[in-house]
Amino acid sequence: MAEKCTLEKEKEKKKKMNNLERSIFKVLTGNMSKADFEKDLYQPCYIDKIAEDDFIAELIAINYNDRDWKSLLQKIILKIYSEEEFLAHLIKLYCLGILSQDDIESTINILYSLSDYNYQYYYEYDTLIRFNSFYEEYGYIKEGYGLNSEKEFLKEVKSFARFYLDKFENEQQKHQLLFLSLNREKYHSTEMQNISSNDLVEYAKNRILNIESKKNTLKYIGAFVYDKNLIDHIYSEARNKAFQHLFPLGLTYLTVGIPLLIAGILGVSSQKEISYVYILILLGSGLTLTGLYYVAQISYLLIRKQKTSKKN
Protein backbone atom coordinates (compact mmCIF):
# COMPACT_ATOMS: atom_id res chain seq x y z
CA MET A 1 0.00 0.00 0.00
CA ALA A 2 2.81 2.34 0.93
CA GLU A 3 4.58 1.53 -2.35
CA LYS A 4 1.41 2.32 -4.33
CA CYS A 5 1.06 5.64 -2.51
CA THR A 6 4.67 6.52 -3.33
CA LEU A 7 4.14 5.72 -7.01
CA GLU A 8 0.98 7.83 -7.12
CA LYS A 9 2.86 10.73 -5.57
CA GLU A 10 5.66 10.39 -8.11
CA LYS A 11 3.13 10.38 -10.97
CA GLU A 12 1.41 13.42 -9.51
CA LYS A 13 4.74 15.21 -9.12
CA LYS A 14 5.63 14.50 -12.76
CA LYS A 15 2.22 15.68 -13.93
CA LYS A 16 2.54 18.92 -11.98
CA MET A 17 6.04 19.57 -13.31
CA ASN A 18 4.87 19.03 -16.89
CA ASN A 19 2.03 21.48 -16.33
CA LEU A 20 4.50 24.02 -14.99
CA GLU A 21 6.80 23.59 -17.98
CA ARG A 22 3.85 24.10 -20.32
CA SER A 23 2.98 27.28 -18.46
CA ILE A 24 6.54 28.53 -18.93
CA PHE A 25 6.34 28.03 -22.70
CA LYS A 26 2.92 29.67 -22.79
CA VAL A 27 3.99 32.79 -20.93
CA LEU A 28 7.17 33.10 -23.02
CA THR A 29 5.13 33.03 -26.24
CA GLY A 30 2.35 35.32 -25.04
CA ASN A 31 -0.23 32.53 -24.80
CA MET A 32 -0.58 33.12 -21.07
CA SER A 33 -0.53 36.36 -19.11
CA LYS A 34 2.21 36.98 -16.59
CA ALA A 35 -0.43 37.26 -13.85
CA ASP A 36 -1.88 33.83 -14.69
CA PHE A 37 1.60 32.31 -14.78
CA GLU A 38 2.42 33.68 -11.34
CA LYS A 39 -0.92 32.37 -10.08
CA ASP A 40 0.04 28.89 -11.31
CA LEU A 41 3.57 29.14 -9.93
CA TYR A 42 2.64 30.23 -6.42
CA GLN A 43 0.42 27.22 -5.74
CA PRO A 44 1.10 25.40 -2.43
CA CYS A 45 2.23 22.26 -4.30
CA TYR A 46 5.18 24.26 -5.68
CA ILE A 47 5.84 26.49 -2.67
CA ASP A 48 6.24 23.40 -0.50
CA LYS A 49 8.97 22.08 -2.84
CA ILE A 50 11.29 25.13 -2.73
CA ALA A 51 13.73 23.57 -0.26
CA GLU A 52 14.15 20.32 -2.21
CA ASP A 53 13.68 21.39 -5.84
CA ASP A 54 16.18 23.90 -7.27
CA PHE A 55 14.18 24.31 -10.48
CA ILE A 56 11.09 25.52 -8.63
CA ALA A 57 13.18 27.59 -6.22
CA GLU A 58 14.80 29.46 -9.14
CA LEU A 59 11.42 30.10 -10.78
CA ILE A 60 9.95 31.53 -7.60
CA ALA A 61 13.08 33.63 -6.97
CA ILE A 62 12.50 35.64 -10.18
CA ASN A 63 11.03 39.10 -9.73
CA TYR A 64 8.39 39.10 -12.45
CA ASN A 65 8.13 42.88 -12.29
CA ASP A 66 11.69 43.24 -13.59
CA ARG A 67 12.27 44.07 -17.25
CA ASP A 68 14.43 41.00 -17.84
CA TRP A 69 12.10 38.42 -16.28
CA LYS A 70 11.56 36.65 -19.60
CA SER A 71 15.26 36.18 -20.28
CA LEU A 72 15.77 34.85 -16.74
CA LEU A 73 12.86 32.45 -17.18
CA GLN A 74 14.29 31.27 -20.50
CA LYS A 75 17.70 30.57 -18.91
CA ILE A 76 16.05 28.40 -16.27
CA ILE A 77 13.97 26.32 -18.69
CA LEU A 78 17.11 25.80 -20.81
CA LYS A 79 18.62 23.95 -17.87
CA ILE A 80 16.16 21.08 -18.39
CA TYR A 81 15.63 21.38 -22.17
CA SER A 82 18.26 21.37 -24.88
CA GLU A 83 18.39 24.48 -27.07
CA GLU A 84 16.81 22.60 -29.99
CA GLU A 85 14.01 21.07 -27.90
CA PHE A 86 13.28 24.44 -26.32
CA LEU A 87 12.98 26.14 -29.71
CA ALA A 88 10.90 23.31 -31.19
CA HIS A 89 8.29 23.58 -28.43
CA LEU A 90 8.41 27.37 -28.53
CA ILE A 91 7.75 27.43 -32.28
CA LYS A 92 4.86 25.01 -31.80
CA LEU A 93 3.06 27.45 -29.52
CA TYR A 94 3.79 30.36 -31.85
CA CYS A 95 2.32 28.35 -34.74
CA LEU A 96 -0.81 27.65 -32.70
CA GLY A 97 -1.00 31.39 -32.11
CA ILE A 98 -0.70 32.09 -35.85
CA LEU A 99 -3.54 29.69 -36.64
CA SER A 100 -5.76 31.23 -33.98
CA GLN A 101 -5.32 34.77 -35.37
CA ASP A 102 -7.32 36.23 -38.23
CA ASP A 103 -5.90 39.76 -38.21
CA ILE A 104 -2.61 40.58 -39.89
CA GLU A 105 -1.15 42.69 -37.06
CA SER A 106 -1.33 39.88 -34.48
CA THR A 107 0.33 37.52 -36.94
CA ILE A 108 3.10 40.03 -37.67
CA ASN A 109 3.75 40.41 -33.93
CA ILE A 110 4.25 36.65 -33.69
CA LEU A 111 6.54 36.66 -36.74
CA TYR A 112 8.53 39.48 -35.14
CA SER A 113 9.08 37.35 -32.03
CA LEU A 114 10.20 34.40 -34.14
CA SER A 115 12.52 36.67 -36.13
CA ASP A 116 14.09 37.83 -32.89
CA TYR A 117 14.93 34.23 -32.02
CA ASN A 118 16.36 33.83 -35.52
CA TYR A 119 18.78 36.72 -34.86
CA GLN A 120 19.63 35.39 -31.38
CA TYR A 121 20.66 32.05 -32.86
CA TYR A 122 22.52 33.59 -35.81
CA TYR A 123 20.48 32.13 -38.67
CA GLU A 124 21.38 28.62 -37.53
CA TYR A 125 17.97 26.99 -37.95
CA ASP A 126 16.12 26.74 -41.27
CA THR A 127 12.67 26.94 -39.70
CA LEU A 128 13.44 30.20 -37.90
CA ILE A 129 14.97 31.61 -41.07
CA ARG A 130 11.71 30.83 -42.88
CA PHE A 131 9.63 32.69 -40.32
CA ASN A 132 12.07 35.58 -40.50
CA SER A 133 11.68 35.72 -44.28
CA PHE A 134 7.90 35.95 -43.82
CA TYR A 135 8.41 38.92 -41.51
CA GLU A 136 10.75 40.63 -44.01
CA GLU A 137 8.41 39.87 -46.92
CA TYR A 138 5.55 41.66 -45.16
CA GLY A 139 7.71 44.79 -45.05
CA TYR A 140 7.85 44.74 -48.85
CA ILE A 141 4.12 44.18 -49.07
CA LYS A 142 3.50 47.23 -46.88
CA GLU A 143 5.80 49.33 -49.07
CA GLY A 144 3.99 48.21 -52.22
CA TYR A 145 6.77 45.97 -53.57
CA GLY A 146 5.35 42.58 -52.62
CA LEU A 147 3.72 40.36 -55.21
CA ASN A 148 1.25 38.84 -52.72
CA SER A 149 -1.71 40.63 -51.19
CA GLU A 150 -2.02 40.70 -47.39
CA LYS A 151 -4.73 38.05 -47.64
CA GLU A 152 -2.53 35.74 -49.74
CA PHE A 153 0.43 36.41 -47.44
CA LEU A 154 -1.59 35.51 -44.34
CA LYS A 155 -2.79 32.33 -46.02
CA GLU A 156 0.81 31.37 -46.84
CA VAL A 157 1.98 31.99 -43.26
CA LYS A 158 -0.87 29.89 -41.85
CA SER A 159 -0.07 27.15 -44.34
CA PHE A 160 3.53 26.98 -43.14
CA ALA A 161 2.43 27.05 -39.48
CA ARG A 162 0.09 24.13 -40.15
CA PHE A 163 2.90 22.35 -41.98
CA TYR A 164 5.12 22.72 -38.89
CA LEU A 165 2.43 21.46 -36.50
CA ASP A 166 1.79 18.41 -38.67
CA LYS A 167 5.50 17.63 -38.55
CA PHE A 168 5.58 18.21 -34.80
CA GLU A 169 2.96 15.55 -34.16
CA ASN A 170 4.81 12.93 -36.20
CA GLU A 171 8.44 13.76 -35.42
CA GLN A 172 9.95 11.90 -32.45
CA GLN A 173 13.23 13.79 -32.60
CA LYS A 174 11.92 17.29 -31.97
CA HIS A 175 15.21 19.01 -32.83
CA GLN A 176 14.72 17.87 -36.45
CA LEU A 177 11.83 20.32 -36.67
CA LEU A 178 14.33 23.16 -36.77
CA PHE A 179 15.75 21.83 -40.03
CA LEU A 180 12.65 21.26 -42.09
CA SER A 181 13.14 20.47 -45.75
CA LEU A 182 11.13 23.27 -47.30
CA ASN A 183 9.37 23.18 -50.63
CA ARG A 184 10.83 26.29 -52.21
CA GLU A 185 8.29 26.32 -55.03
CA LYS A 186 5.52 26.39 -52.46
CA TYR A 187 6.97 28.71 -49.87
CA HIS A 188 9.05 31.23 -51.83
CA SER A 189 7.49 34.23 -53.50
CA THR A 190 8.54 34.94 -57.10
CA GLU A 191 10.27 38.12 -55.96
CA MET A 192 12.48 36.17 -53.55
CA GLN A 193 13.38 33.55 -56.16
CA ASN A 194 14.52 36.21 -58.61
CA ILE A 195 17.04 37.82 -56.25
CA SER A 196 20.52 36.59 -57.21
CA SER A 197 23.54 36.02 -55.00
CA ASN A 198 25.36 38.80 -56.87
CA ASP A 199 22.62 41.28 -55.92
CA LEU A 200 22.94 40.24 -52.30
CA VAL A 201 26.73 40.52 -52.42
CA GLU A 202 26.44 44.04 -53.82
CA TYR A 203 23.88 44.97 -51.18
CA ALA A 204 26.05 43.58 -48.38
CA LYS A 205 29.11 45.38 -49.76
CA ASN A 206 27.31 48.73 -49.70
CA ARG A 207 26.15 48.09 -46.13
CA ILE A 208 29.69 47.15 -45.09
CA LEU A 209 31.07 50.35 -46.65
CA ASN A 210 28.83 52.24 -44.23
CA ILE A 211 30.34 50.20 -41.36
CA GLU A 212 27.05 48.46 -40.63
CA SER A 213 27.17 45.52 -38.22
CA LYS A 214 27.23 41.99 -39.59
CA LYS A 215 23.98 41.20 -37.80
CA ASN A 216 22.08 44.03 -39.52
CA THR A 217 23.55 43.16 -42.91
CA LEU A 218 22.57 39.52 -42.58
CA LYS A 219 19.10 40.54 -41.43
CA TYR A 220 18.33 41.49 -45.02
CA ILE A 221 20.17 38.58 -46.64
CA GLY A 222 18.42 36.09 -44.36
CA ALA A 223 15.06 37.12 -45.80
CA PHE A 224 16.04 35.58 -49.12
CA VAL A 225 18.50 32.80 -48.32
CA TYR A 226 17.98 29.69 -46.21
CA ASP A 227 21.39 28.07 -46.38
CA LYS A 228 23.63 29.38 -43.56
CA ASN A 229 26.77 28.43 -45.51
CA LEU A 230 25.50 30.48 -48.45
CA ILE A 231 24.80 33.43 -46.15
CA ASP A 232 28.38 33.24 -44.82
CA HIS A 233 29.72 32.97 -48.38
CA ILE A 234 27.74 36.02 -49.51
CA TYR A 235 29.01 38.07 -46.58
CA SER A 236 32.59 36.91 -47.14
CA GLU A 237 32.44 37.82 -50.84
CA ALA A 238 30.92 41.21 -49.98
CA ARG A 239 33.66 41.88 -47.44
CA ASN A 240 36.38 41.04 -49.99
CA LYS A 241 34.75 43.35 -52.54
CA ALA A 242 34.53 46.10 -49.95
CA PHE A 243 38.21 45.68 -49.11
CA GLN A 244 39.17 45.84 -52.81
CA HIS A 245 37.08 49.01 -53.11
CA LEU A 246 38.47 50.72 -50.00
CA PHE A 247 42.20 49.99 -50.24
CA PRO A 248 43.00 51.97 -53.43
CA LEU A 249 40.76 54.82 -52.31
CA GLY A 250 42.44 55.12 -48.92
CA LEU A 251 45.91 54.87 -50.44
CA THR A 252 45.15 57.53 -53.06
CA TYR A 253 43.73 60.05 -50.59
CA LEU A 254 46.61 59.60 -48.14
CA THR A 255 49.26 59.74 -50.87
CA VAL A 256 47.92 63.08 -52.11
CA GLY A 257 46.62 64.51 -48.86
CA ILE A 258 49.63 64.04 -46.57
CA PRO A 259 52.17 65.83 -48.84
CA LEU A 260 49.74 68.74 -49.35
CA LEU A 261 49.20 69.02 -45.61
CA ILE A 262 52.96 68.93 -44.91
CA ALA A 263 53.58 71.56 -47.61
CA GLY A 264 50.94 73.82 -46.06
CA ILE A 265 52.37 73.42 -42.55
CA LEU A 266 55.91 74.17 -43.79
CA GLY A 267 54.56 77.26 -45.54
CA VAL A 268 53.02 78.52 -42.28
CA SER A 269 56.20 77.80 -40.30
CA SER A 270 58.25 79.83 -42.78
CA GLN A 271 55.84 82.71 -42.08
CA LYS A 272 54.98 83.22 -45.71
CA GLU A 273 51.78 85.22 -45.93
CA ILE A 274 50.52 83.57 -49.05
CA SER A 275 46.87 82.55 -49.31
CA TYR A 276 47.62 79.32 -51.19
CA VAL A 277 49.40 77.98 -48.07
CA TYR A 278 46.09 77.91 -46.21
CA ILE A 279 44.38 76.36 -49.21
CA LEU A 280 47.01 73.61 -49.14
CA ILE A 281 46.34 73.00 -45.43
CA LEU A 282 42.57 72.81 -45.91
CA LEU A 283 42.85 70.61 -48.97
CA GLY A 284 45.52 68.39 -47.44
CA SER A 285 43.56 68.03 -44.20
CA GLY A 286 40.40 67.08 -46.02
CA LEU A 287 42.09 64.47 -48.20
CA THR A 288 44.08 63.04 -45.27
CA LEU A 289 41.00 62.73 -43.06
CA THR A 290 39.12 61.02 -45.89
CA GLY A 291 42.01 58.61 -46.33
CA LEU A 292 42.07 57.90 -42.58
CA TYR A 293 38.34 57.24 -42.71
CA TYR A 294 38.91 54.56 -45.35
CA VAL A 295 41.79 53.14 -43.29
CA ALA A 296 39.40 52.88 -40.32
CA GLN A 297 36.93 50.96 -42.48
CA ILE A 298 39.69 48.62 -43.70
CA SER A 299 40.77 48.03 -40.08
CA TYR A 300 37.17 47.27 -39.13
CA LEU A 301 36.89 44.70 -41.92
CA LEU A 302 40.14 43.03 -40.90
CA ILE A 303 39.07 42.84 -37.25
CA ARG A 304 35.68 41.39 -38.21
CA LYS A 305 37.40 38.85 -40.46
CA GLN A 306 39.76 37.83 -37.66
CA LYS A 307 36.90 37.43 -35.17
CA THR A 308 34.87 35.38 -37.65
CA SER A 309 37.86 33.12 -38.37
CA LYS A 310 38.38 32.47 -34.64
CA LYS A 311 34.68 31.70 -34.15
CA ASN A 312 34.71 29.21 -37.02
Concise summary:
This protein has 312 residues and is an all-alpha fold.
- Rounded to an integer in angstroms, the radius of gyration calculated over CA atoms is 28 Å
Tell the overall outline. elongated
The low-pLDDT segments are 1-17, 182-194
Hey, roughly how much beta strand do the residues contain? under 5%
**Biggest β-sheet description:** none
> How far from one another are the termini?
59 Å
Q: Would you tell me the structural class of the helices and strands?
A: mainly alpha
- What's the tally of helices? 15
Would you list the SSEs in sequence order as H and E? Answer: HHHHHHHHHHHHHHH
Strand runs, count: 0
- Helical content stands at over 70%
Present the secondary structure layout:
Blueprint: H1 2-28, H2 34-41, H3 44-47, H4 54-61, H5 69-77, H6 83-100, H7 104-120, H8 126-142, H9 150-170, H10 184-187, H11 190-193, H12 197-209, H13 214-221, H14 228-269, H15 275-311
Helix pairs in contact: 1-2, 6-7, 6-9, 7-8, 12-13, 12-14, 14-15
Keywords for this entry:
mainly alpha; elongated; disordered N terminus; 312 residues
Question: Can you offer a commentary on this structure?
Answer:
Residues 1-17 and 182-194 have low confidence and may be disordered. The chain contains 15 helices and no strands. With 312 residues, it is an all-alpha fold. Helix content is 76%, strand content 0%.
